[in-house]
Structure formats: C-alpha cells, structure tokens
Amino acid sequence: MTKKDRYGARSIGDRELRPESLMMSYGYRPSLSEGALKSPIFQTSTFVFDSAEDGKAFFEVAYGLREQEAGESLGLIYSRLNNPDLEILEDRLTLWDDAEAAAVFESGMGAISTTVMTYLRPGHTLLYSEPVYGGTQYLFSEILPQFGIETRSFRAVGGTAAMREAAREAADDGTLRMIYIETPANPTNHLVDIEAAVALAKEHSDPANPTLVAVDNTFLGPIFQNPLQLGADLVLYSLTKYVGGHSDVIAGACLGSAERIHEVKGSRTFFGSMAGPWTGWLLMRSLETLKLRMTRQSETAGRVADWLVRHPKVTRVYYPGHLGEGDEGYEIFQRQCLAAGGMVSFDLDGGEAAAFRFLNHLTLVKLAVSLGGTESLAQHPGTMTHSDIPAADQREMGITESMVRLSVGVEDFDDLVADLSQALAAV
Ligand SMILES: *Cc1c(COP(=O)(O)O)cnc(C)c1O
Fold it and tell me: Which residues 6+ apart lie within 8 Å of 159 measured at CB?
C-alpha cells in the first residue's frame, strides 16, 4: 500500500521515504502539465480562474477573509502571491527540516528582512549573536533602530554565558521579541547553542509577545543541522549558498510552523520579496543533488582541515570537526550538528601580507566571496566580507589579520591539496 497526501507519496508500506528520495518528484503532478516529467517554468504573472466563484474563493483564502476549509488549498491567483514553481519548491524544502511550511524569497536578505519586519515593532528588542552575516549585521545595527527597534548583540566566542547575560539585559530593557542566532558563526565557526537560546526565550517570554528564536541555518542546514527540531521557531536560509549550490542564483527561505509562515507570507505579499519562477525552478534542480553535494563537501573539508593543521605555515585551523572534549563547543556540536560542514578557516604565520600572498597564488580555488558552491572559494574576511567591522571588534570576535576562509567544493581532494600546497609554498 502506498500512503499519499495531496503532494504525492511520502511512504511505501510503513517505510517513510527519505527527503533525498522525494526531491525529484514530491509536490508535482505531471498530469497537470501535459505529462512533463519535470515541472515546467511557470513564467506567468497571473492565472486564469475557471469561474468567478473560484476567483472569489481564492481571494477569500489569500486575504484571510475566512478560514481555509479542510483540504482546501490556495488557488493560483497572481505570481506575487503564489506560483507553482515556488509552491513545489517550498513543499520540498519543508521535508529536510521537517517543517510545517516554508516561504521562499528572491534573496537570503529578503528572507531575513521580511521575517524580522513581520515580528518586530517599536519598543521591541532583538538580541543577536556576533559575528553574523554582514548584510544582517547592517540591517540589525543600522536600519532596525531607525524604526524604534532596539538591537543588542553578544559574542559567539563568549559562549552560552555571554548569551544568557545579554538576554537578561535585553529583557530588562523591555520586550525581548526575538533571539536571532547564526551558527556556526561566520568566519570563525564558533557554535551557538540553539537549545540554550530556546530555554532563554522561554524564560524571558512575554505571553502577549512571545520571544521567538530565529536561526540562520545557511552553513550546515538543512542536511547537517535542523534547528526546528531543537525548539527554534523560525529557520532562515540564504539558498544562494549550499542549497542553490552552483553559484548561479540568489535566493532565501524562512521555515517554521504553518501559523508562523502564514504570518511571514503575509508580509512577503506586501513587501513583494518573493522569488520568481525561474529561481524556483533552478532551486528545485539544485535540491535533487543537495545531500550528495553537502556530504562530499563536508567529507573533503574535514580532510582539508586535517591537512592544514599539519602544515608548518598554518598557525590555527577553525573547524567544528576539530573540537575536542573540554571545548564548550564540543558538547554543542554533539547535540546539534550531524557533521562539520564544508567551511574551514585558518590563520597563517605572517598577518595580512601572508594571507594575500596565499590568496594571490591559488589557481584551482577561486578568490571570491560567497560559499557553498560546487567550486572551492577562498577569501580574506578581515578586508572583504567583514571589512566594515572595526579592526578592534574583529579581534574580539576572533577574526584575525591573517585569517583565510575556505569554502570547499566538490573537486578531487588531492587536486585541492596540490593547489593549497603550492600557494602556501609561495608565502
Ligand atoms: C549569504 C548569506 C546571507 C545573505 O544571503 P543573500 O542570498 O546573499 O541575500 C545571509 N546569511 C548567511 C549566513 C549568508 O552566508
């Protein structure tokens, strides 16, 4: 017997199918598209209603004028509200994180800004971990305060004690509406304890405005970290990175309960930050190989990190797989990560000059920001991705002058080592 829901079969007999087995077909019915095996790109701005009654019913649901009836799905109206390529993609994305619902956006920043603007109001406080992605940092420290939203940060390097102290101070200020964390932190790979953030949110929650925990899961998710399972309310992605995985598309997502995603999609409709059908189609293509790619990238990164540790010109390697018993991060890693991922940072002997010489001599590995693609990339966080953070703050966050961040792709391990080795020899 085959169990089916309206999205297609999810199990065979009593065997629940794994997400990687469902990525090629889930949520798409070929009979609705001339039998095409793959979903077409629905390059259309608007959709024809079968009848005026249908149009009325679709709008009632879309605008929340009445409760959705059991089994009633939102009819297709207009591509700012819904489009098959986005809906199928969203249904597939939910499977990895076991989320009730997902919303996709035209960028990771679109997902983050739309989500925080859905929940934060004047007088609310947002607490966030540092370092966070540069765009997020700017949004939180420069833009949200202009709307009367207080923002406070804590350093991931300070561990759970720093987060607890900052949460207490933030709650003293007023309504702590959101704890926003990025883990592993970029570029230092420090881990922030998701379950500890959830416990702090419960402790400081105001029943009228509960404290939500939002996690940017771009670095390890959705294959190696699933924050919703640890109690987080919202998970955010830059799909541009591992999920897109080929450095050819910009996109983002927010996942959570049906109720939360309904709220986030409400803002998305009016901010107009949804993704287009081409983006949806490209990401569906990417999702089919997501697990293969991330598994290979994580395995190779682990080997690269082991190789770097033994190199005489490398003074320190930052890799979650190297945490040992006794490190605060080790215990967090055991509880919340399934693997260490494909991002490795390291320090060279000789400061910025040494890092630049190394970067300028790479050939197979490309000198570029961004990460998570099939090709390996390297960059210098201090003067590139994190250059707008003052040097003294960078040092406090653990970003050194000689730090290089490497995003490991799917190339052959020995070829990568050949490139790293000759570039290190030039230092
Ligand atoms: C890239 C990135 C973002 C922003 O995503 P865009 O798709 O570039 O808008 C947010 N968070 C993290 C961790 C990122 O790496």
Answer: 328
